[in-house]
Structures are given as C-alpha cells and as structure tokens.
Amino acid sequence: MQDNIRLRTYEEEDNAFIHELVNNHDIMAYWFVEPYVSKTAMEKHFEKQWNDPTIRSFILTNGDEPLGLVQFFDIHPVHRKAEYAIMIDPKQQGKGYAPIATRLAMDYAFNILNLHKLYLYVDEENAVAQHVYKKCGYEEIATLKEEFFVKGSYHDVIVMNIFKRDYEKMIEVEN
Predict the structure, then answer these.
(1) N or C: which terminal CB in the chain sees fewer CB atoms within 10 Å?
(2) Tally of CB atoms within 10 A around 92
(3) How far apart are CA 116 and CA 135, in angstroms?
(4) How far apart are CA 115 and CA 64, in angstroms?
C-alpha cells in the first residue's frame, strides 16, 4: 500500500476533485472556512496559487487515484517556516493515509524546501487529527481560545509544530 502513496504537484486537471472536497461541509469545518467555492473561483484560485512562491500544493495519490490535498502556506524564506494543511477525501478516511501524507510532506518541507519549522492549527475537538500529528512528531505549543466559528459555535484551536531537528531525530531512531 505505502509503495504507491505519493505526493505529486497539484495540476489544473485536479480542480474537479478539489472542488468536491472544498465544498464538503464536514471537511471545511476543520479548515475553518465556508464550503462555498464555485468552479470559476477554483480556476482563478489555481492560477493565483500556481504563481505564488509562498504556497506549495500537492495531490496525495495511491497510484493514479487521488486521495487528498496537502498544502504548505505562508512559506517564509527568511524564517524558514510554513503552515501545513491536509484534507483527505471522506471516501479515503480511516485507511491510514493521513500519517503517510504528513510524513511525505515533512520530508519535502525539511529536505527540499529546507524549512526549519512546520506549524498547523487543529480544532480541539478533532482528536483523530491531533493523534495523527502527535504520531508524526508534532507537539502542542498553544491553545487559541474561541478562535474560529464552526457549525454554530466558537471552537478552541490547538497550535502544533515540529522542527527539522526533531524530524531528523525521529527518522534516525526509525532507521
């Protein structure tokens, strides 16, 4: 299974797949944004992101089958940090893809982009995601109280991060 899992560049042809995901209420609640994106907006957003050096977008695949989206936002070349985000197609959730995707993303961030730190925001109620991130070496660093309005109420958000040195130690122990 893991041999066929990879990250590939998000291409314009992926817009239909991503359009379905970003209009899913359950997924977007965890991204803290409204699931309201037209196909036209997707096309414009793709063009804008394609030329933005502070963003990297990847499609997680199993062979040729798309499984989800992995992104880095606010890539900062001086401070060498970026925000990490992931969404897995609901039909593919619960199959162990999120930890694999997160590890592939960390490998890219630390070994290709030469980042020093990755950080992320996770809803305090999303225990599954927190477990995945901790399993991949992320540590909780803060809780932002009532940070985002989700499905009718304000939610606390946990900020997590991982440093390149900690990722390298984790890889060393595994090998």
Answers:
(1) C
(2) 16
(3) 19
(4) 29
Q: Is the pLDDT of residue 21 over 90?
A: yes
Dist CA 73 CA 56 (whole Å): 7
Among 30, 84, 97, 133, the active-site one is 133
pLDDT of 42 over the 90 cut: no
Mean pLDDT over all residues of the chain?
Answer: 93
pLDDT digits (tens, 9 = 90+) for 61-94: 999 999 999 999 999 999 999 999 999 999 999 9
What is the three-state SS of 15-61? Answer: HHHHHHHHCCHHHHHCCCCCCCCCHHHHHHHHHHHHCCCCCEEEEEE
Reading the block at residue 142, the tokens are 């803060």
The letter for the amino acid at 129 is: A
Amino acid occupying residue 128: V
Dihedral over Cα of 74, 109, 84, 49: its sign:
positive
Of 100, 102, 107, the C-alpha closest to 122 is 102
